[in-house]
Amino acid sequence: MSELSRRRRLLILAICCMSLFIVGLDNTIVNLALPSIKRELGSSLSSLQWTIDAYTIVLASLLMLSGSVADRVGRKRTFQIGLVLFGIGSLLCGIAPNTGLLIAFRALQAIGGSMLNPVAMSIITNTFTDPRERANAIGVWGGVIGLSMALGPVLGGVLVDAVSWRSVFWINVPIAALAVVLVALFVPESRAQYARRLDPVGQVAVMLVLLGLTFGIIEGPHTGWTSPLILGCFAVAVAALVFLIGYERRITEPLLNPRFFRSIPFSGATLIAICAFAALSGFLFLNMMYLQSVRGFSALHAGLLTIPMAAANALFAPLSGRIVGSVGPRIPLLIAGASILGGGLMLTGIGTQTSLLYLGVAYLLFGIGFGMVNAPITNAAVSGMPRAQAGTAAAVASTSRQVGASLGVAVLGSVVTANIVGPFGAGFVDASRLTWWIMAAIGVAIVMLALLSTGRRAVASAAAVVPQEPSEVRSA
């Protein structure tokens, strides 16, 4: 088909951003609803961790597969299927009678979610072919995260207080339905002319790594770190990882070609994404418990208190995209790392009576950090592979985020569980102090990775591994 007009490209960007919006809204609202879920369903802290991680683990496990399937069978078709499954999963979460079924329906949500963001990003990548225009589009994409975070806490607070926690899932259904219709009307079908073969063995190995590691971390404080079950989980994760690395090197079309990790910017972006989203998911999980269960704020009040973070995210994400398009990723990444470091250090000093102004400044720093980090890591991923493999490239960035999100909730939640002593209020504050120090350390790691992955040697390593770009197949 002929080149799309600028107006059509912007319309496609807006439609694709709807998928990011409902996923971002879902993540923010679910964290806000956790205290209400705990009260109504009698959930333990580990069950709440699984309510979050059942989604992120399944999502991380299937993102690469979904990207490959979209490149092969059509991005538009895959995107629509994902929207339908996400909507059905959301509806079922809203009627779950117990925590076990809620966790299961969250996994169904994740199957649909795995077909949304990476596939939408691959559509955007093939729609905006100019590098500068693409970087700006990715900046808008990142800004939608901030918008969903800004609306999520407030909207979630209203829904939880006025209706129940169940309504925070139901709100996804009409948005998903509208997106399905708009995709059918305005988004052209596209696929890779030379799509890779599917890699079911590698896919199973990835799932074993993530599930074994996360299960061991979450259940370790309760079952015992040296129990046969937990040691077995870690052994399975390590064995699957060793097998995955060896197997992917031997096959012709792996799930993810290991040679791409020879690119320092690509590897650096992957590690930065894991670090940043471990901090983000851990922050959202623990902070909502702190504001509602320790400080006694209502769901709406807790949501309103996080607006400085969400607003900063919404403001700095598009700015980050423009900076990446103009001068590269180093400056946004350095600002992101420094801001997360500052926010983490401030939160190490919180107590049961910390002033709201103090909390607001800490949240603002976190918002700046997360707003600045998205565009450079996404741009590094999609720039490190040809447009014909855009689904796979976008899935790499999204997988890194979800792996980080899973580990953040698992590790930081387990740190609190293992250290909490005495009444929940003061006990939670003391037990969570170490988690804020861990987040500060993550900020330092992001700064170091940013310096390492953006120098001349790093750029040269990327140029050496980027393959030649085959042509695309696109139909109206």
Walk me through this protein's architecture.
The chain folds into two domains: 6-188 and 195-199 and 253-467, Up-down Bundle (Growth Hormone, Chain: A), CATH 1.20.1250; 200-252. It is globular, with a radius of gyration of 21 Å. The chain has a two-stranded antiparallel ribbon. Helix content is 80%, strand content 2%. The chain is mainly alpha-helical and 476 residues long. It contains 18 helices and two strands. It has helices spanning 6-41, 45-73, 75-93, 99-113, 117-127, 131-162, 167-170, 172-186, 200-223, 228-250, 264-294, 299-305, 307-327, 330-347, 356-383, 390-419, 424-453, 456-465; strands spanning 189-192, 472-475.
Key phrases:
476 residues; mainly alpha; Growth Hormone, Chain: A; 2 domains; two-stranded antiparallel sheet; 18 helices; globular
Brief description of this entry?
With 476 residues, this protein is an all-alpha fold.
Helix % is: over 70%
Q: What order do the helices and strands follow?
A: HHHHHHHHEHHHHHHHHHHE
Give the structural class.
mainly alpha
- Gyration radius (Cα, Å) is 21 Å
What's the number of extended β-strand segments?
2
CATH level 1 class label of the largest domain: Mainly Alpha
The first-to-last residue Cα distance is 6 Å
Query: What is the fold named in CATH at topology level of the largest domain?
Result: Growth Hormone, Chain: A
Main sheet record? 2 strands, antiparallel
Mean pLDDT: 82
Strand order of the largest sheet: 1-2
Strand content: under 5%
Q: Which descriptor suits the 3D outline?
A: globular
CATH homologous superfamily annotation of the largest domain: MFS general substrate transporter like domains
CATH architecture of the largest domain: Up-down Bundle
- Number of discrete domains: 2
> Segments where pLDDT lies below 50 for 5+ residues?
468-476
Counting DSSP H or I runs of 4 or more residues, the number of helices is: 18
